[in-house]
Every structure is written in structure tokens, then in C-alpha cells.
């Protein structure tokens, strides 16, 4: 069962999202919050697998709340849920350790897919957000590629192979199956890769993999 914390200051939005999630037998909404500070407190209390956090909330905005949740609970994946698609929000959310970014205007199936992916240790960006990220990366591709290629020189050949699969969006379970190893081995590889690349999460690692040419 995937345990989810839902944080949004609009009660109707919370009710709608909760209804979509609760319709899935494998997902349970264990707590709800109406502001960022409450979201952090509920996360501390319930220790969810995934926290769905709206960006704009009172007392503490969602981006700051997400950073606190990630600091308190490294095992909890954070997905930013918002009506806004501005690049600045995307960049700050990913830099703050978010593992996913979904637009409220997206397909409900994206919501379920995102929660499942992040709970499984992968990352998930809605298609519209992914297009924006790729567009940003393509803007200064040559210089970013050179930096990324230099950064991955600290990795072994096997670690580069795992990084490429992370960049392709595969979960730990998928990577384990692809490489014929146990999932625990993949988790160890991913932890080492994040540490050596000095990044906070799989999304940031995936961006480096893309920039370095490990994935297209």
C-alpha cells in the first residue's frame, strides 16, 4: 500500500485529488493538510511514502515545505502539484529535492502514474513539464554537455550504466530486472551515484545523464 500525504490550501482540490487516489486499491491517503507548516507536521507524524504538495500555500509555501519534508524524511518522495507551469517553479522544485512535478490541469492518470513512480523510487514529470525542462537543457546544450561529461568521469562504467537507466525513467525494480541484479544492489548504486555527482535526487541525476548524452 502506498501511503500518501496530500497538502493543498483549497478544500475542493484536496477532495478531488483524494477521490482520485482513493479509487486506486493500492493507494491510501493517510493525511491531509491545508497549509505548508501543517504539511510538514503531518509528514513528521505519518511518515508517508509520497507527499503531494501544492506550491502556493499559506504559512509556509509548498516549495519550502517540500524541502523541509525531504530533510526530515529522506525516504519520502515529494511531488509538487500546482496550476502553475512557470520555469522558475520547476527549477526551484527540482533543486529542492522534489521527485515529481504535476500540473493540476493534467490527466488524472498522470497523477496515479506519478504517485506510483515516485513511491517506487523513480522520478516523474508531467509531459508539459518535461517539455519545459528539455527546452531549458537544449538552450545551452554544448556547454552543459561538456560540464555533464566531466561530472560523470567520477563514475565507474557500471555506475554510468545505472545512471543511463535512471535517466531513461526506470525505477529501481526495472533497473534490477534489466541488469539481472537484486533491487538492493541498484539502490546502493543509485545512492553512490547521487553522492558522487553531488545531487539531491534522481531527477537531478537524470538531467545530468541527459546532458552527458547517456540518454536521448
UniProtKB/TrEMBL annotation:
InterPro entries attached to this UniProt entry: CheY-like_superfamily (IPR011006), NreC/VraR/RcsB-like_REC (IPR058245), Sig_transdc_resp-reg_C-effctor (IPR016032), Sig_transdc_resp-reg_receiver (IPR001789), Tscrpt_reg_LuxR_C (IPR000792), WalR-like (IPR039420)
Residue numbers bearing the 4-aspartylphosphate modification: 54
Keyword list, A-Z: DNA-binding, Phosphoprotein, Transcription, Transcription regulation
Domain HTH luxR-type: 148-213
GO molecular function, one term: DNA binding
Domain of life from the UniProt record: Bacteria
Signal peptide interval: none
Keyword rRNA-binding: no
One Pfam family hit: GerE
Gene3D superfamilies according to UniProt: 3.40.50.2300
Biological process per Gene Ontology, one example term: phosphorelay signal transduction system
Domain Response regulatory residues, every copy: 3-119
Protein name: LuxR family two component transcriptional regulator
